[in-house]
Amino acid sequence: MTPVHHRSHVDDLLSFIKASPSPYHAVASAAQRLEKAGFRELRGTDDWTGTTGGSFVVRGGALIAWYAPEGTPAHTPFRIVGTHTDSPNLRIKPTPDTSSAGWRQIAVEIYGGVPLNTWLDRDLGISGRLALRGPGGTTDSRLVQIDEPLLRVPQLAIHLDRAVNDGLALDRQRHIAPIWSLGAAEEGALLRRVAAAAEADPDEVLGWDLMLHDIQPPGYLGAEREFVVSSRLDNLVSVHAGVTALAGAATAAEEPAYIPVLAAFDHEEVGSGSDTGAQSPLLERVLSRSVTARGGSPEDWSRALAGAFCVSADMAHAVHPNYAERHDPDHRPLPNSGPTVKVNVNQRYATDSTGIALFASACERAGAPWQPFVSNNAMPCGTSIGPLTAARLGVPTVDVGVPGLSMHSARELCGADDPGHLAAILGAFVTSG
Q1: How far apart, in whole angstroms, are the C-alpha atoms of residue 383 and residue 34?
Q2: What is the mean pLDDT of residues 349-371?
């Protein structure tokens, strides 16, 4: 990509992130882009027989999409891009209305590995989905997004906590209820506010999956605008790059040697152990049905998996200038030097030499740089959906990611060139040998 194309890609990424404050919104945004590229949604209860072209399946905060032109042999191997739609945040409890000392507050629960201090003194909105009563005993789901300064978790003044800079006390996890008004708790107040934003009747709301998000918009940072700063870079950078790569594969002139697949899972930040996570059979069942829909046999399914490969794309750590000793001295990725290939011999990442070679080859075809990453021996690294996907499907997998700072913070940072590099590499990966 040229510098102009990099900026165009990031501008589009920022729009994608702004429209995707929750996993459900991220899936809706991805689906909308795929539909513009000619993909169509399939439901699990539909008959998929004879289905070809671009298709996708949505389940809650997860999306599986693939492209198989008419005439594609049923045994054609898959090229899978694995990502996740969720990010650590604060999620609203089932009984949300509470109060303390004359302040009306909202009860929240910590989702994933949240650096709590990054959520203090920020203007917060609410997003997620409502489960509504439908006709004949059915239920319906409706997205809600309130991009208003509705809530705030106020920090204790330094005059009342002189040791605040000595480290965040563990018991502060009990003091994260955001404020949103004055007065005693009023049962149903939050529900009425959220239902109004979703144009729904509060009496029709049977449940919800609601969370808080920082309403500060994403943007550029730095003397040359060389950085991107935003909420949820982990992992919407990868979701957006995967959607871009898949849409590009669908418009390619040549017949594909592989079936490109995007797997955007939910709940990775809490272990992927749900019906929409990487540990679930969701991807396996969708891909198996896609083979059967094209007239494939169990043997075709086995052949398609035997020739498959997966790139698990999740954010990575750039070397931190103030804590360089926390990084391996010989592996210090920098922003705007390309995505990293993440290696861990204990298989917290699924990368091996064949995966490195395949990814490096895709980088060469895309004209994009890459960097190796390995954690300091003195501390364990994080993990990703790569090992889970590899174990579930028995498919070779390489773990990669755009390097950044402030991972899991309410506002993260990465290089402005790297999202475009990743999209170009994934595009080469899903379309070439």
Answers
A1: 28
A2: 96
